[in-house]
């Protein structure tokens, strides 16, 4: 898959293009009625922005281009959800037909709950052009919709045992600064390491396979798979954590926002004793709604699958991870990795298969042992087995995502960090 050659990228810096993309989506959601033809009319413009940003790798170092390219497609999905699927409006301060967190639909009728009514009454503001624009900008940038009825599932709180706790402004700023510095230094440690000799061979396409060449896998290669998996997820964790923390430090520090809108992105690693819980409870939920809504639309409005059935459940899971794979594949494409060399989508679809395997094994176990699902975490030994399973599954599957890009690294590859504290130099 490559972008069509007959579409020429807009010769504008990608930062400006990204700003225009956000502006066009904001104007559509805040100033047009939900049934307006202007909303679908903006869709091609959004795609042109994505294409132009993804094609602008020459403007900046590949890692930065990858971030912008992925973010551009995320914003496209956000536009698609807010304007066309969920149909958000200023008057309703959310979707016109709001779907409760259970996801159940009520025969196409307008769905309103007491919680939504109370929230709408609490935050209602005077209908002015400025208030509409500010609202539209906020909902476009609020990927998780924190502290609203539309908040994404499993968004962590500041204190796991006290969900109502919110740190004071000084405590929040100190915490944000400290964690951001730790994240930066961790990434600096990895970025400062020289690339391994002959990465094209070490991370070649044949090294992605594991079980089909098990007899040829050496201890050194297995150790490399483990290190690459740990380093890949740790770097992603630090990057995804650090950038929003720096933004929150600015916005909260200057009084433009409040700490309660900047809750942690990641949950506890101790909760990740399965593939499902790794992605659904521990990992960030920034993309959950914008991937889940198209998956829900596919399963119910297009395929008309029985609501709540096993077929609908796994269709949504598979579609959600496929969309996630496309998001990350476009980010890799923006960073200079051709689509033909990638296995990114395959990696994310594999995660969905891992969840299906888990559910199948659990169902068989419960059927044989006569166990029923109970609230709370499972037995300690089950969690230990889950941790081992998850670690093995990620070590096996992660090279699909990481190796194609790692095989192209060299001494001249520029770091994602602009300055190395360890090497005391600009990169």
UniProtKB/TrEMBL annotation:
Residues annotated as transmembrane: 12-30, 37-57, 63-80, 234-256, 380-402
Membrane topology type: Multi-pass membrane protein
Subcellular location: Membrane
GO terms, biological process: lipid metabolic process
Origin: domain of life: Eukaryota
Residues forming coiled coils: none
A Pfam family per the record: MBOAT_2
Ranges for domain Wax synthase: 262-349
InterPro entries, per database record: Wax_synthase (IPR044851), Wax_synthase_dom (IPR032805)
UniProt keyword terms in alphabetical order: Membrane, Transferase, Transmembrane, Transmembrane helix
Main localization of the protein described in the UniProt heading: membrane
GO cellular component: membrane
Gene Ontology MF terms: O-acyltransferase activity
PANTHER family listed in its UniProt record: LONG-CHAIN-ALCOHOL O-FATTY-ACYLTRANSFERASE 3-RELATED (PTHR31595), WAX SYNTHASE DOMAIN-CONTAINING PROTEIN-RELATED (PTHR31595:SF27)
Family: Belongs to the wax synthase family.
Listed name of the protein: Wax synthase domain-containing protein
